[in-house]
Amino acid sequence: MKTHRLSTGSLLLALCVASVGCNDADSPSDQNDDPISQESIAEVEALADAAIAAGIPGVSIAVLNGKQTVRIARGVADKETSEAMSPEHRLRMASIAKSLVASVILQLVDEEKLSLDDSVEHWLPGMLRENGDATIEQLLRLVSGVFDFGSDPRLMAPYMEGNFEYSWRPEQLVAMAAEHPANFRPGERFEYSNTNYTLLALIIEKITGDTLANVVRDRITDPLGMSASTMETTSHLTEPYAHGYLVGLADTPLDVTRISASSVFGNGNLVATALDVARFYRGLVAGDVVSQARLPAMFSVDANGPESRYAMGLYRFGDLFPCGTFIGHDGMTPGYDATGYASLDGKRAFSVAVTSSNLADKAGDKAAHAAWSKLNMAVSCM
Q1: Which end of the chain, N or C, is less surrounded by CB atoms within 10 Å?
Q2: What distance in Å separates the CA atoms of residue 303 and residue 252, rounded to the nearest whole number?
Q3: Domain range 44-380, CATH architecture
Q4: How far apart are CA 369 and CA 376, in angstroms?
Q5: pTM to 2 decimal places
Q6: pLDDT lower than 70: segments of the chain
Q7: Taking the domains of the chain in order of start, what are their residue ranges?
Q8: pLDDT digits 0-9 by tens, 89-135
Q9: DSSP of 212-275
């Protein structure tokens, strides 16, 4: 994308007019070296409109570039009432929660309250029948070999029957995984498993003596000013929130907003605005969440096979986005699809969240997912 230089005043006016909402607290006080152009904003808005036209009900975008903030919202937050989507609407951000849980773990390591070499058995004795010798670091890097309870059909069975408020205890989720044989010995290879992060969340609660929600609030969201972010464990969502729609199971999208977040405890229960997600990843890269000394290890990709881009609680991509190396995470849960990333040079952070998904980890059908992918590529380089 071409970038045109603007004066501070005209740039701020352009951002407030071209996007839905403008956050004065994040407004530029002086000129950036590479300001976001009106052309770039218009291009992203057009791609957001194309995503809506492709069947995605709502889109929320936030970009932080230096001292500039751009927020764009398109579509509706509620198909039934036609309430317009706004930047203030909160969405389920799913596996982006893993990055926050990993950050708390690394804070506790710095505080010498646990070690990356500690085993699951040390902190949660008897919880795993196999691979209890998997270490904290192996959980963080998704190389523990522990079965993913998300692959057990029992997890979603209550919700598929319409009982969206069915509540799982995290110990039940781990027990469900433990009924299956381990997939491989710890450290042999990378394999995505949500069970890893439910275990890490339980360890956080054991060490701190507090709930995961309170720990994340006190250690991360409050210090970073992420006032719209919570780690939910029930069906309840505090307004304003955007409804999420599951596609592909019926002739019309199904409103699945209230599926209990207890089903994704520790691995996918973050609810936030796009702006808060971007703030988190910018703060992480800046060393405001995890210590600067710890970041190189957190951001390093272990040698888990050529297909692995996973570090500790996040992905690291040097060739996915066309404008640099980024760290961050994707998030998909029934009804929602989201991304949150920051460039390693600290120049930009972004989040794109939409209110539709299918059961194949896509934002919708082929056209909808293609529109979603184009939007992310464009937003990453604003």
Answers
A1: N
A2: 43
A3: 3-Layer(aba) Sandwich (3.40)
A4: 11
A5: 0.91
A6: 1-33, 303-308
A7: 44-380
A8: 999 999 999 999 999 999 999 999 999 999 999 999 999 999 999 99
A9: HHHHHIIIIITTTT-TT-EE--SS--PSSB---EE-SSSSS-EE-TTS-GGGGTTTS-EEE-HH
